Each structure stands twice: as structure tokens, then as C-alpha cells.
Amino acid sequence: MDLEAARTLLPAALEEARAGRAEGGIPIGAALFDAAGTLLGRGRNRRVQDDDPSTHAETAAFRAAGRRTTYAGTTMVTTLAPCWYCSGLIRQFGISRVVIGEVRTFEGGQEWLAGHGVEVVVLDDAECHALLGEFIAAEPGLWAEDIGVAPPPGGLPDTAGPD
């Protein structure tokens, strides 16, 4: 998938990320599309809102898409590189491609996915990066919890990277 086509799918995931932040959650959004570009399901990280550590954006979008006999040809679009948990879901169910808004904040399992035949398209989108950067600055402890690390004494270093 070329970058231009991939960018047309990103707005659904970005809307979810913004909605998640407005709810007091972590601004990560995702959407699952079929091979023709039809939206199957969308979701956002709701770990905070639902008090459920398993409600990541990709899992929420996957659940919203409903049961299918195959996920071949589908595209998972996410504002941030999928973590290992979500990368496992992508591999387990044979999702063909992942479009990632940004990887500077968190690299996740993108290389592992690519090494196992999943097409990975990285957009390096400025809005995706800014949403997460602002969140991390405001909520470093919650960010550390989300990515599964304990914050060091004195807080976290600037993990947002350069703009």
C-alpha cells in the first residue's frame, strides 16, 4: 500500500485517539478496514475509562469489526505502533497489513510483524506524534503504566522525541 492510500485511512483512527483523550484516557486510536477500504470496526484505548488493561485501541477495533471467517486482506490502522499484545492479535488472525501513524514515541512490534509477512506502512504523522507527546508530558505515570514499565524515581525522561 502506498503512503497516499494509507493516509486516507488514518482519520478514523485519529478521531478515536482524540475521543479517548477527551474521555481522560490514552490517545491511541485504531480502525480495521477490508481490502476494498470499507471500515469494519474502530476503537480507542480504553484502559483508563473501562478499568480494563486489555482494552487497547487495536483490540477495540478488532472486536467492533465482529467475527469473520478470515482477516486476509484487511488493514489495521493505528495511531501508534502496536504493542506486543496487539502485534500478537494481528499475527494470530492473519491481518495482512498495518498502517502506523507514528513510531517515534513507541516502536512496538512493527519489525517483528514485518519479519513475519505483515505489510507495515509507517506514516510518521505529525498529529499522531503531537497527541501522544502532549499526553506523555501531562501523564508520564499513566504512559509508563500503559507501556508496561514502572516510572523511575524522579519521573520519566522525555520519550516523545524531536518534533
Blueprint (SSEs and pairs):
Elements: H1 3-22, E1 29-33, E2 39-44, H2 47-50, H3 57-65, E3 75-78, H4 84-92, E4 97-100, H5 110-115, E5 119-122, H6 126-138, H7 140-146
Parallel strand pairs: 3-4, 4-5
Antiparallel strand pairs: 1-2, 1-3
Helix pairs in contact: 1-6, 6-7
- How far the N terminus sits from the C terminus, by CA atoms, comes to 25 Å
Order of helices and strands: HEEHHEHEHEHH
Q: Helix proportion of residues, in percent? A: 40-55%
Number of strands: 5
Supply the number of helical segments: 7
Instruction: Characterize the main sheet.
Output: 5 strands, mixed
Given helix and strand content, the structural type is alpha/beta
Biggest sheet strand order reads 2-1-3-4-5
Net shape: globular
Strand percentage: 5-15%
Q: What is the arithmetic mean of pLDDT?
A: 92
Instruction: Give the low-pLDDT segments.
Output: 156-163
Q: Give Rg in angstroms.
A: 15 Å
Question: What would you note in describing this structure?
Answer:
This protein is an alpha/beta fold and 163 residues long. Helices cover 42% and strands 14% of the residues. It is built from seven helices and five strands, in the order αββααβαβαβαα. The protein has helices at 3-22, 47-50, 57-65, 84-92, 110-115, 126-138, 140-146; strands spanning 29-33, 39-44, 75-78, 97-100, 119-122. It has a five-stranded mixed β-sheet, sandwiched between helices. Strand 1 and strand 2 (39-44) form a beta hairpin.
